Each structure stands twice: as structure tokens, then as C-alpha cells.
Amino acid sequence: MPRAKFKTLTEQMFYVLLCLKKECYGLDILDRVPQMTEGRVNVGSGTLYNLLEQFLESEMIVETKVEGRRRSYILTDKGKDMLRKEYERINAQANDYKKIFEEEDMSNEGH
């Protein structure tokens, strides 16, 4: 069963939206994501422009400027809310991991 659109975000989606906290062009995003993640995450231009189109349609971002083929975008309140929810989801996962491994570490201390 396919997941609901934007119920959760992929890493690439998360970082594209994160870049758009401040207004920027698509090309800026292509540079910023690898910088932000120390090369761990890359977004190809085809993927980026597809995501930007989907985010526009979902009203998570708005286009702020058009200069020839260059377009700039920024997050909407809806986009900020989605990013915050994803951040909370990721933190909940990290906390679950900690709980499980701290439990395991504590039970191993008695042995």
C-alpha cells in the first residue's frame, strides 16, 4: 500500500524544505543540501524540481520571484508545520532507540 503523500518526508524532502526557511533558488538548494549534511544527502536536479512542483501544488511553499528560468521559493506556514511534524517524528524515533538500548545496557550491567 503506498504511503499517503507527505504523511512522512523522505530525507531529500526534509532538507529541501529546510533550505526554504529562507527564500532561495532551486540551484541554491542543490548546493545547500550537501553542505548542510556534510555530503550525506544529495538531491539531483530532476528530483528537486519534481519536489518543488509537488510542494507548490500542496501549498507547502510559494514562488517568490521569477527571473527568466530562475525561480525562488520560500516555506509557507503549512510547509513549516509539515517540517516541524517530521522533526517531532524523527525525534520520537531517536527517543525510542535510546529507550531500547538504554534498557539493554542497564540489563547488561548486572551480568
Taking the sheet with the most strands, its summary is:
3 strands, antiparallel
CATH topology: Arc Repressor Mutant, subunit A
CATH architecture label name: Orthogonal Bundle
How large, in whole angstroms, is the Cα Rg?
18 Å
The secondary structure category is alpha+beta
- Percent of residues in helices comes to 55-70%
How are the SSEs placed, and which strands pair?
Layout: H1 11-19, E1 24-25, H2 26-36, H3 45-57, E2 61-67, E3 70-75, H4 77-109
Helix pairs in contact: 1-2, 2-3
The gist of it:
The chain is α+β, with helices and mostly antiparallel strands and 111 residues long. 59% of the residues lie in helices and 14% in strands.
Detailed description of the structure:
The chain is an alpha+beta fold. It has one domain: Arc Repressor Mutant, subunit A. 59% of the residues lie in helices and 14% in strands. A three-stranded antiparallel beta sheet has the order 1-3-2. Strand 2 and strand 3 (70-75) form a beta hairpin. Helix 1 (11-19) crosses helix 2 (26-36) and helix 2 (26-36) crosses helix 3. It is elongated, with a radius of gyration of 18 Å.
Descriptive terms for the model:
3 strands, 111 residues, alpha+beta, three-stranded antiparallel sheet, Arc Repressor Mutant, subunit A, single chain
